[in-house]
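Report of the visiting student (M.T.), summer placement. My assignment was to run the structure pipeline on a short list of targets and document each run. The first record concerns UPF0122 protein SAMN02744037_01673.
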Amino acid sequence: MNLDKVIEVSILFDFYKELLTEKQREVINFYYNEDYSLGEISENLNVSRQGIYDTLKRAEKILQDYEKKLQLVKKFNERNKYIEDIYKELVNIKKEIKSGKDCTILVPKIENLEEICRELLG
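After the run finished, the structure tokens were exported:
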């Protein structure tokens, strides 16, 4: 199993699992989070291996379609990037203040952080 795909589906599942049927949630959870084989899932749920495979592929497609339409994962990642940038800039400002620099030169940096925060707050 491709690790990138496991990570992608697991993240999509975290965001959109409530939009799947109970059976689809079970299959995705067993396969991606519990690392069950299709055969093991088939035995546990009393469904044919082909039925499990079909459910898995259908659920994966549904998760990808939700992300294409809603872009919640993309927006979440973008917000986290902004937060990381804010944190790094605040650390730099703190260092400059501690070093005794003229604080007035920090005003543009702080204004930039304010603008980023306004964008995040929408």
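Residues 3-70 form a domain with the Arc Repressor Mutant, subunit A fold (CATH 1.10.10.10). The longest helix spans residues 72-98. I thank the supervising group for their guidance throughout the placement.
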